[in-house]
Amino acid sequence: MAIPSDRRALQSVATQFFVNGFVYGSWVPRLPAIRDRVGISIGTLGVVLTIGAIAGVVGSFLTGRVIARLGTRRTLIGGALLSVGALPLIGFATVPAVLVLGLFGVLFFDVFIDVAMNVQGSVLSARRHAPVMNRLHGLWSLGTVSGGLVTAALAGAGVGVSLHLSVVTAGLIAALLFVARGLLPIDESHAPDDEHVPGGSWHVGRTGLLFLIGGAAAMAMEISAGDWAAFRLGDDLMSSARVAAGAFVAFTVGMTIGRLGGDSVQVRLGALRMIRFAAALAASGMVLATLVPNQAVSLAGYMIAGLGTAVMFPQLYDRAAKAPGPPGSGFTAMLVGQRGGALLVPIAIGTLANTSTLNVGQAVAIVALPSAAYMFASTLVRPGARPPGRGRR
To answer: Which of 3, 116, 188, 389 places its Cα 20 to 30 Å from the Cα of 29?
Structure first.
């Protein structure tokens, strides 16, 4: 097999980032309709999402071994086929068990895609004169925006969830044919390269513990805003289905803009100051989105929160990909934190929002704001300082 050029490989990786985002943007805004079709409460939905997220935690412990055995190219292709293939189960579900099965399939195999495409993206980014990881994650966000806009239009037109997700599945499998031909066929090990990366002294990339906590905090910020935005507008502010879906779109539009511009900001400010500013921006946006009882202010808040949240995961993934050892070996702690956050956040928000004292926005704020505060605080550790949470020996 001919080895593709870096340009062709980057096109394939970029396409896969977009495809992954489109999948996410296709089913998450449909959760209110899926909840009604299955006939469960918002609290039960939180439990169902948590059970499905267990798949991501399980997959986190297996990715390094699978990639070491199969390589990132085969892992990505196989994982994408299986993850997208499980998507129609979510659309056709009429009982909680089928919904759980569909979520488990989508989220379990998504972990393998996630690591494989980020490893390939980090390798290609390191070969270029300017980083591209933020922009690759920007394409993921652009995929969510595209998927969210399509979903909002179809929901407004009365198209059923099952037909919608079946057509999406067919289209994404076709896109994978393009992706598969251009991926790098051979993996290479990374060595730490902090001295050549702006802001490379950010200590969240130095220890497994901070990878774990950083992954959990970034995930809590992202899914508490994205997954629950439609419920904030629909359940709390009594917006229409189209406007409620627009809250998810506003958040992902903010993320897309932040990620597409993140590489140039990183070059100018360095990663430390960029993350510090982004965490403050995300917290400000979440206050507006979740605590101000006004539809327009909430939509604007979600966009601002998206701008701030945008660069968190690109930085974490790039550091994990550059960890010493075989490709994928640096991801375990970060993925366990990330997927553990995905496991706990839905049930936490669902439980809090299901009480008589809190609405959805207040429940989201309780989870998201401390997470943003942690991401800000993690940048205050100075080079050479003992990382917080790590005892002396």
So the answer is: 116
Task: Report residue 21 as tokens.
Answer: 């985002």
pLDDT, position 119? 87
Rounded to an integer, what distance in angstroms lies between the CA atom of residue 253 and that of residue 307? 8
> Could you tell me which residues come within 8 angstroms of residue 70 by beta carbon, excluding any fewer than 6 positions away?
78
Q: Which of 345, 382, 377, 381 is nearest to 364 (CA)?
A: 345
Query: Could you give the CA distance from residue 93 to residue 100 in angstroms, rounded to a whole number?
Result: 9
Fold of 6-378: Growth Hormone; Chain: A; (1.20.1250)
Name the amino acid, one letter, at 233. L
Domain assignments of the chain as residue spans, ordered by start: 6-378
What are the phi and psi torsion angles at 325 (to 5°)?
115, -175
98 with 86: CB under 8 angstroms? no
Beta strand spans in the chain (E)? none
d(CA 107, CA 91): 15
Spans in the chain with pLDDT lower than 70: 1-4, 188-208, 323-330, 381-393
Total-model pTM:
0.71
DSSP code string of 216-255: HHHHHHHHHHHTTHHHIIIIIS---HHHHHHHHHHHHHHH
Region of residue 50 (left: phi > 0; alpha: psi -120 to 50; beta: else): alpha
For tokens 């196989």, the residue is 78
Question: What is the per-residue pLDDT for 15?
Answer: 93
Query: Per residue in 320-356, pLDDT tens?
Result: 777 666 666 667 778 888 878 877 888 889 889 888 8
